Amino acid sequence: MRGPYRPPQYRRVMIPLTVLRRLDCVLEATKADVIKLHKKLKADGKYEPEAIEKLINNKFKLTFHNTSDFTFQKLLGDADKLAANLNHYIAGFSSKARKIIEKFKFDEEIEKLDEANRLFEVIKEVAAVDLHPDRISNIEMGYLFEDLVRRFNEQANEEAGDHFTPREVIKLMVSILFTHDDLVYRESKVIRIYDPTCGTGGMLSESEKLIADPDSGLNPSAKVKLFGQEYNPESFAICGSDLMIKGEDTSFIVFGNTLGTGKSKEGFVDGDGHPNERFHYMLANPPFGVEWKPEKDNVTKEHNEFGERGRFGPGLPRINDGALLFLLHMISKMEPAPSDGGEGARIAVVFNGSPLFTGDAGSGESNIRRWIIEHDMLEAVIGLPDQLFYNTGISTYVWIVTNRKPPERAGKVQLINGAEFARKMKKSLGDKRKRVGDGTDGSNNTPDGSPNHIATLTRLYADFKHDVRMSLGDIQSNIDTKRDQTKSLFVSKVFDNQDFGYLKITVERPLRLNFAVTDERIARVQRTGAFENLAISRKRKNKAKIEEEILVGQAAQTAILTVLGSLKPAFAKGELAMDRAAFDAQLSDAFKAADISLDTALKAALLAPGALGEKDPKAEVCWNKKGESEPDPDLRDTENVPLPPGIALPLPLAYENKKKKGKLDLEPLLALVQEHCEAYLKAEVLPYRHDAWIDHSKTKVGYEIPFNRHFYEYEPPRPLEAIEHDIESLERDIIAMLKQVTA
After folding, report:
1. Could you read off the pLDDT of 232-257 as tens digits, one per residue?
2. Helix crossing, 364-374 with 323-332: angle to 10°?
3. What is the H or E stretch that residue 655 is in?
4. Which residues have CB under 8 Å from 478's CB, separation 6+?
5. Among residues 26, 30, 195, 200, which one has the least CA distance to residue 103?
6. Helix-helix angle 106-115:82-91, to 10 degrees
7. Rg (CA), the chain
8. Taking the model in full, what pTM does it have?
9. Distances (CA, A) of 478 to 60, 68, 293, 443, 448
10. What angle do CA 413, 419, 422 make, to 5 degrees?
């Protein structure tokens, strides 16, 4: 293939051909009988094509079949017509298999290989490989295919992150999700597993392997059913092919957009592909940092119309990152909690750092976090090393979300710091320079003495202990061997749900203004909108009326300036009025003496800062008509106040949506937290700003998970003497080298 294809493009040919060859071998024993029965049923004319397929599958206990006269060996018998015959062979598959295979768009590669005179040689080589089930079992073939997919995706690292999660990350996710969960071990249990962004199916395959592997599975007696949805055609085809290769039902893998755009099309599911299904376990690596603008109208409509009865009730994240939408979708697919008579569900999802803390109090992201935490669904967050993925070096995090926490975890969230649990790769693959240790060197599954970080992290999760420390030596990271291996760091912490919530309070300070009537301030008055609008006509058609209104307005402007001019002597020597109420009376008396009306809008414009008023911290407080101090917007500030310890969750505050925009009832919440906020103000603000107060009507609730802050430990800089010694040593070295150059 070298020449027509570059190495990253080999998968376009080798993956579909591997699938076709395996299917060819699987159908070998029944091929002749299938063709014979198909011809008979078709000749009878009694059955529709769909009914014929079901009859054949039931008769021979197959999930798919092929009715063409060709096999791989027969294809080689006519080299001149190989391209046409190969296309005919593919068209002979039953509909479910054909829909999967067609997503490879292999007909384009057949034409390309044929034009390059490579088709016969490639088919000959593939046909020589025996992939018969008697030689390679379904589970072994699944492993072989997964390894093939991994290798090709690693070669194509420029796009692999879009659909391929490193295998060791998947192993960690399934290990934490399943290993210490009682439901997995129930005899002959039917277990339903779902991935809404299944890509090539790695998470589904690894989940099934961990549970049902006949040799090493947690519960080989379990019946595992795999469900998925994927909108990339090639990834969908690979996932479906993997299941076909293993002899499993492919009808539960759906081609379509999980979020939906509201614009359906044939052969493509727009929205939830499993609307009536609920699952025991879910895993996903949704696209993060990706704009969800194409889905905005559909998602927003569902949010507004269905609220918490729909998938996206708690809130919507900002448009440039829709990762949290997939988590909300997965939560909506959970089996009912044990408290509601169900078996409950567990979710493992990979995110970048954004869903942990992006979004201010009351924002969509914050409300989503709030809803998950206040419903006691967030069980753990595991921070992973950076440089794990093929097309990005950023740090990632695994969230464990469940509606069936064990009693000891109720009301708690565990944070596990796995940032140092990494091994340096012998060869980088794109941006992937590290891997989580699994006891192998990464190139195969053979133990090589490397640390098993997956087992250690799983044990930390299972132990569920607070303030656990490990040394770098115990972790066995080889990223930087020069570091002090005795250095200790926190690797596990446990928090109450309330620890992640906070109240965003608005702290006000009073408006203080001085006043004077000077040429400068009169000029500022003339530039105000209220003054300029006096000489602007509101008429549209009657020119005479327009001119009349303008003249009246100009006269009013002149009269106002005359009154202000009469007040100038009182401020000729730089005097300042420090009390707005007193200056207001002085101004009103002057207008009354001149028999000029001073309406409310004009008075407000004259007294405003930037007109006759000017902000002055030494001036008296400005009071409104209710006898309350008027706030100064420029001095307004906000403070994030932790929730009161032990406050009951969920908080008595609704989630804002289109119908409740700006209309949330704060009274029940304030009854619980107002005193707590006032105590915070007294302790943290009033000692520095004695005139401050809280505007409780603006209080908001926020939730964030400041992961790095919780694991940060201050390290004092080295002593100045040591730094000075190093500098002097470097200077001596430089001088010595310069002498050698000039000698």
Report:
1. 898 899 889 888 888 788 889 999 99
2. 30
3. none
4. 423, 424
5. 200
6. 170
7. 36
8. 0.88
9. 55, 56, 42, 17, 15
10. 130
